[in-house]
Amino acid sequence: MSDLISRAAAIAEVEEWAEHGHDLIHWTGIKAMLEIQPAVDAAPVVHGRWNVILNPFWDVECSECGYAKKTNWEMAFCPNCGAKMDGGERDG
Q: CB within 8 A of 64, min separation 6: which ones?
């Protein structure tokens, strides 16, 4: 599993170390290495739950976007908004 970090925060930390007299050439190289690393397109995980709608079909709907489906079979993710159906708890 890869950790996601802020490139800007990492570079700012390197610059701070360099400003405090640490080996400037060494930290300049690390900064250059950080600048060329590939980035990922990441978004926060949205958590939700399937709510039962009381009607003749026992539909369920996504607590995040309201997407409804005609079955009581519950998928792990909403096919409409991508919310992770784990009870609606939020990260952090």
A: 46, 48, 78, 81, 83
**76, two tokens:** 């792990």
pTM of this structure: 0.52
Whether the CB-CB separation of 49 and 91 falls below 8 Å is answered with no
- Own/partner contacts of 63-67, CB < 8 Å, gap of 24 or more, are 63/88
Rounded to the nearest angstrom, the gap between the alpha carbon of residue 13 and the centroid of all alpha carbons in its chain is 23
**Orientation angle between helical segments 7-19 and 24-36, nearest 10 degrees:** 170
- Tens digit of each residue's pLDDT (9 = 90 or more) over 2-16: 677 788 888 888 888
